[in-house]
Design brief:
Layout (H helix, E strand, L loop, with lengths): L1 E5 L16 E4 L5 H7 L5 E6 L1 H10 L8 E6 L5 H5 L7 E3 L9 E4 L2 E4 L3 E4 L1 H15 L7 H12 L3 E7 L2 E10 L2 E2 L21 E7 L3 H7 L15 E6 L1 E14 L2 E12 L3
Parallel strand pairs: 1-2, 1-3, 3-4
Antiparallel strand pairs: 4-5, 6-7, 6-15, 8-11, 8-14, 9-10, 9-14, 10-12, 11-12, 12-13, 14-15
Length: about 270
C-alpha cells in the first residue's frame, strides 16, 4: 500500500489527487513515529508538502528506524529542498538518502534537526514579519523579497557577530545574515551557499557583513544566483562540522523556515 499524508490545514484544505488504490491520510495530529511502526515492509509513504512538512517529519520521527521507502511530493510555497536536489514541485522524490546524518541545531533551549538551513539575521526577521502578516491576513501572498528590502532600508539593524567554526573564532561588525547551510538554497530560492554539498559531511556558514546599508541593498539580489560569494569584501564563507553564531543583540531566527524569536546564539552540529 502507498500512503499519502497531507496537511488539511494547509493549501486551503485542498485534498491532493492520488493514484487509484493509494490511501490518502490527513496528517494533522498524526503521530508519525507510531504510524511508521504500523507499516508493512513493502508499504510506501508519500509526504505532500514542502520544506516545513519535511522539517516537521524529520523531527517527529527522530530516533525511529526507517524501514519503508519515503517520498516527498513537492507542493506549497517552501521548496528549497527541491531546488537543492534539482527537482520541481509536483515531482515525487524518494527522500530516504537525504534523511541520514542530518545536522542538529541548539537554540533557545531547543534541539532540532534541520534539512536545509538554520538562518539568523534579516532572514529570521523576514519570517517574523511574514508570520505577523499571515496572522492578520491568512490568504495574503507573502512578498519575502519586499520584506527583506524594507528591512535592509529601514527596520533591521545589523549586529556584531562572533562566528566559531570547529573551534576557530571569527569576529565581524555590521552583520546582516549569518545562516548555517546543509543545502545550497534558502529563503524561497536564494542560492546562499553555492558550493555547499549536503553529502559532504560539512556545513557552510555564510556571513553577509557590510557597513553601508545602500551597498548591502545593491548587492543583495546577487544572492539569488549565488554570485554574492564573489564579493569577498562583504561575504565570508566558512565550512566545518560545528558552527556557533553569536549576535550582539537578540534577533529572530528560522529553522527551515520556522521562526524562532529572541535569539542571541545558536550552535549547529553535523554528525560524523
Amino acid at each position: 500500500m502507498k500512503y499519502y499524508l497531507y496537511n488539511s490545514l494547509a493549501n486551503n484544505g485542498i485534498r491532493p489527487a492520488v493514484p487509484e488504490g493509494a490511501e490518502l491520510t490527513d496528517a494533522v495530529g498524526l503521530d508519525y513515529a507510531a504510524f511508521l511502526k504500523t507499516l508493512a515492509p513493502e508499504d510506501e509513504l508519500v509526504l505532500v508538502g514542502g520544506d516545513g512538512t519535511l522539517n516537521y517529519f524529520i523531527n517527529a520521527i527522530r530516533g525511529t528506524e526507517i524501514k519503508n521507502n519515503i517520498y516527498l511530493l513537492g507542493s506549497g510555497t517552501g521548496n528549497d529542498f527541491f531546488n537543492d536536489i534539482d527537482k520541481q514541485p509536483g515531482e515525487e522524490v524518494l527522500i530516504n538518502p537525504y534523511l541520514d546524518r542530518l545536522p542538529t541545531v541548539y537554540v533557545n533551549g531547543m534541539e532540532k534537526l534541520f534539512i536545509n538551513n538554520m538562518g539568523f539575521g534579516i532572514d529570521g526577521y523576514c519570517c517574523e514579519v511574514a508570520d505577523q502578516i499571515k496572522e492578520k491576513s491568512p490568504q495574503e501572498k507573502i512578498d519575502y523579497s519586499g520584506i527583506a528590502i524594507k528591512g535592509l532600508l529601514f527596520h533591521f539593524k545589523p549586529c556584531r557577530a562572533e562566528i566559531t567554526v570547529d573551534g576557530v573564532k571569527h569576529e565581524f561588525d555590521h552583520v546582516w545574515i549569518a545562516p548555517t547551510m546543509k543545502g545550497k538554497f534558502y529563503g524561497g530560492g536564494m542560492k546562499m551557499a553555492p558550493e555547499q554539498d549536503r553529502f559532504s559531511g560539512r556545513l557552510s556558514v555564510v556571513v553577509y557583513h557590510c557597513r553601508s546599508k545602500l551597498w548591502a541593498l545593491v548587492a543583495f539580489p546577487s544572492i539569488f544566483k549565488g554570485e554574492h560569494v564573489k564579493k569577498t569584501g562583504i561575504v565570508s564563507v566558512f565550512t566545518g562540522k560545528e558552527i556557533t553564531v553569536k549576535f550582539s543583540r537578540p534577533c529572530a531566527a528560522q529553522i527551515d523556515g520556522e521562526t524562532v524569536l529572541n535569539v542571541t546564539e545558536y550552535r549547529a552540529v553535523q554528525p560524523e
